[in-house]
Amino acid sequence: MYHLVCVHCGATYSADEILYNCKKCGHLLAVKYPLDTITVKRSTWDARPLSVWRYKELLPVHIEPVSLQEGGTPLYHLKRLGEEMGLKHLYAKHEGMNPSGSFKDRGMTVGVSMAIQLKKKSVACASTGNTSASLAVYAAKAGIPAVVLLPAGHVAVGKIAQALMHGAKVISIRGNFDRALEMVHDLCLTHGLYLLNSINPYRLEGQKTIGFEAIDQLGCVPDRIVLPVGNAGNISAVYKGLLELEALDFINSLPKMTGIQATGASPVVRAIKENLPVVQTEENPETLASAIRIGAPVNAEKALVAIRKTGGTAESVTDDEILAMQRDLARKEGIGVEPASAASVAGIRKLVEMGAIDRDEKIVCVVTGHLLKDPETVIKQCEPPIEIDADLPSLLSALHL
Ligand SMILES: Cc1ncc(COP(=O)(O)O)c(C=O)c1O
Ligand SMILES: N[C@@H](CCOP(=O)(O)O)C(=O)O
What we know:
This protein has 3 domains: 32 residues, no CATH class; 206 residues, Rossmann fold (3-Layer(aba) Sandwich); 99 residues, Rossmann fold (3-Layer(aba) Sandwich), CATH 3.40.50. By secondary structure, it is an alpha/beta fold. The protein has 15 helices and 13 strands. Helix 3 packs across helix 4, helix 4 packs parallel to helix 5 and helix 7 crosses helix 9. The radius of gyration is 21 Å and the shape is globular. It starts with a strand and ends with a helix. The protein binds pyridoxal-5'-phosphate and the ligand N[C@@H](CCOP(=O)(O)O)C(=O)O. Pyridoxal-5'-phosphate binds next to helix 9 and helix 13. Pyridoxal-5'-phosphate (PLP) binds next to helix 9 and helix 13. This is Threonine synthase.
């Protein structure tokens, strides 16, 4: 049976205690499995469909999971963009192909299942959009109420539409995401709702399967895994999962974990570049990649370890660089992603230009959310449709034929 362990002081807690922070030092908790008793074989996993639940021996859920077939997302070889950058082995893992259109579904299938396993009656989160959309979807599937707190005016319309349509109670606060997270944390501690942001150690267990799948699809461990970083849960989760695979002798090397942030919201990048022991909060984070508009990443401590221990790096990209890559992915590779997701590939382009990447590396960029999440940012970048009279001459003239 697994238990919870503080990532900072190592204090341990029983698995069924509803805890988000260590009672001794206040830092975050992680799920620790007795890996020496896990006897699953690679061949057993290989025989199952590619999905979060392929790896159930390394997940905490013991009941029938609340599932909508999450995971099993495509790994695309970016031939054209890779060629332009001089990279032969550049891949994108398209997490926008999950049920609600982002990687959060991997976390929520596990997190909402744990809410049921722990007999919680309602769930809540703060969100820049995707967490709320995903929570609303999985709470609907589980048949329990969900409350979501959003930063007013800073959430993409597709994500609000999802949270509303799937029946969550949607509250917009006049404050940013970091404040919304503090508020929902207080609400959950005082009123017993189950908090499903990435400070929930169980939710992140689902997200670690991104790394497992990438390795299974590639047939080897990539040299580098690149992720956009906001609250820093995903990069931490993927790293944790890879450590578990290594401990089980399923892999014998680790990819360089590489985090990409938007220039206006880049506290992790700053900590890496300036070799700071801890991340310093940015009070007024700003980027049009609203999913990663976060100044106080709650998982930063773990993310710094992931990047430093694997010899990875962190880099920031401007909003213009993010949008240029969003267009390039769409037009040169046929891959539709939201701005925050394009940050990972934009970051690699920048690192290549800086000479910081070995061109023979096998690189997996995680592209985290679907293009249709944020249609307004798409429309603003494109020419509007050409409206014509409904006759052939008008059509030919519009096509310059
Ligand atoms: C589309 C998208 N990409 C990236 C991120 C950043 O992930 P994390 O917060 O786990 O660093 C988020 C949300 O946080 C997101 O919604
Ligand atoms: N981008 C996230 C921000 C919240 O992150 P979480 O991983 O702590 O839930 C979102 O979609 O809300």
